[in-house]
Amino acid sequence: MLGRPSRGQFGRPGNQARRFAGRSGGRRSRHTDDMIDALLPDLWQRRPTRPSPVGRWVREAARTYARWVMRAPDTRGLGTGLAAWYPVGQVAHHYAAHDTLRDSLLLGAFAPPAALAAWVATYKTHGSPRYSGAIAAIAAGAPLWLATAAHTGITNLPTLLGYTVTATTAWSAYTWSDVLKQRRRTAALQAKWETIANLAGLEDSHLLHTKATRTGVRFKVDVGVHGPSASRLERGGLAVQIARCYGIGADQVRVTGDAKNARILWITVQLKDLWSEPVPHPAVADPAAAPKGHRSILDGPFVIGTDPETGDDLELVIFDEGGARHVEIVATNGGGKSNTLSNIVQQAAECYDVLTIAIDLGKGVIPSLWGAHLHEAAGVGEEDKALQLLDWIDTIVDERAIACAGGTHTPTPQAPVIILIIDEQDTATGMDSPIAHRVKPVLDKVHRRGRSGGVVAITAKQRNVVQHTGTKEGSANTYTKIVGRVSDTKEMTKAVPDWETIGCPDMSTYGSGAEGVVLLVKAGGVWQAGRTRALYDPDTVKALAAAYGPADATLEPDIAAHLPGYTDRHPIPAAAHATTRATDNGPAPSAAPGGTAQTRPDPGQDRQADTAPTAASGNGPADTGGTGTGDGDPGWGFDPTNEAEVDKAAKGLVAKLDEFINETSPPPDQATTLDALRNAQHAIDNTTVPDDVTQAVVRFLADRGPKGARRDELTQHLGMATSTAARRLGKLVHDKIIVRAGNGKAARYYLPAHAPDDHKQ
Amino acid sequence: MRPRPRRYLVEFEAPDSDGEYIATCLGIGELMAALADRIDDWAETLAAKGMPRPVIAQFEQAVADLDEAAQQARRSAANFADYYEDARTIAARGIRIIGAPRRRAA
User: Fold this and answer.
1) Contacts of B95 in chain A (CB under 8 A)
2) Fewest CB within 10 angstroms: A140, A232, A461, B87, which?
3) Could you tell me which chain A residue has the CA closest to the CA of B26?
4) 3-state secondary structure string across A279-303
5) Is the CATH number 3.40.50.10540 carried by domain A282-548?
């Protein structure tokens, strides 16, 4: 091949002598030389021994013109081609002279396929109708010109004028198209990328897409199939190498793979400081922009911050068509948990169908800041209130499970989504929490079954370890994990075990020095990193909470009536009140707090009525007026004369009972023969419990009160062997001196006066 | 022509352990519930075809009784677990691990 340099590495000179490059002084690119070589004829190799001056002049002119064209091949090349195509028309005229019309038509018939081929070839590459249209028109113009020239010849003025007008129009259309500009810009970026790729060892890669971001540039790169894989580059030192190319910090370059294509690599280069400016909260800057109760929780996810790199919102899904989406927040002390929770509470305040309940037994931050808005809250030293709130939540989950009958709760202002926030979770469920045994079952229940019932659990903790959480149900059923600042990489791994696999930043170092930096990892590995909106000033937040005031949503009246003490603090709306009183055929009482006690169900009502579902009252705005139940008994919460509602309620009730019974007595993991059981029972029956042991047990349980005691606690207290203690405790139960509730490790012993009302054995 | 009777085989073996007893109770409960559902569906089909209400009313009662039977079977499992809770603890303490088989020398 004439003058073709070897295809060496980037920057390496070719092995062969370069006949034209040697005279360019290095001003032209290799690509340009190749193109010139291909254009020039072979006669350049056959140099005459003594070239004439005219020949040298022609050669020099041709080379100069070729260089001039290659500096702008799109425009000048096209112009040259159009100019050269005019005399070709004379050839067509010459060969089509015998039957001008037929041959002209035949030549013109080549236009459609030429246009189609040009369109297909260019549209797939550029994706622009304008660009492909221009190319197709030019391609179709060639046969049309030949057909025209065959008929008219080219040696007349009208033909010359028409061709000139058409050619200049085509040239202008192509030259002025935006796609051409884009091609030039892409070529420039490609050249820039090639420089980076060469320095970073990615010579075989191909730049697919470049996007300017708010803080720098983002490259989409095809790394091909021969070089290192995208995941390997992601883990390797590519980010550091690129950072060295730019002369910036290593944490300003992020290399991530593409979940859908292993050949694709995304490289984000941050040339500006991401964290120089805090993200102001619109509710603080302009309270009118975020009024209370102006939207539904179903209208979209909560916005808790901004991704400074892209400007996108940090979106947190709390409830969608699939039901409640639990959230877990992990951050070290001062790592941004409270600010994140404040953002969530503020977003919840904008929804008319949400009630927020907060428990923080450690510091009481959220109850203190948002007390004016929260539906209920328990702070430091309010363990009893926290347990009462959790009992309410427990009941709400049960009642809504029955009402939903396998479906998903539909939030309305009269049946809102309940957001249960538990901050400083270790104080509620941790090893040292005195109420962990009461909190964990409820929290587990919310995590497992709150989804369909519209009860969202948002837990915040300093470490995602079971010593703090007490259970792994939360992590297993969490839809979104939010990680704030953590102390080190080990804690990051505990928070998101596969953070390296999915390409998350390490939150122990990411955005160091900035407040409110969080990482949101959703189920499936999709993640966002950014900065939460600034709600750091306690006075500002308290003022905002006071401006909002209590939420306008109300619990379903029939469920509220089942919550002990609820109606004392939250009056049932008048319309719902009238519904519950309709059985007395009396006038509806007012909604004054003093009259709410009348809404409690009749103690004599049978159990079925107590557990009867409330599907009709909770699932739609149509029943908000309390008149939709017709002549039926409103005390049931649905119309007993409506067969569909009864059937739905019955199925929910049976499902709930099945679930309860199956849970309470599953087959044991380790079977015990019936003979052994009978012998053991016989031993219990024949056991005589010494009086001092009886008194010790009674005193211990009396001190424990309603909390009761586990078997191992009693065994340890009595200081005797497990089997002996079990035999004596069994005898005390047999003699009804004490009572037992639950089985297995969950079994607890109480004095009869303190026995729990439900699940009583 | 009388329809050919279909055969149903239901066997309950005497349990030897607590696990077998509880599993059998739950199995009986599931069987009763499934039977109740089948009969309920069948009765609804009959009603849809115009069968007089007094004729199929007994099946409605049968469905309710079978549901009750299913619950009682499950409750029996719960009562069993509760009754032998302490005894099971003692019996479990009697289990002795006598050692694992030694590996034969290569």
Assistant:
1) 670
2) A232
3) A662
4) CCCHHHHCHHHCCCCCECHHHCCEE
5) no
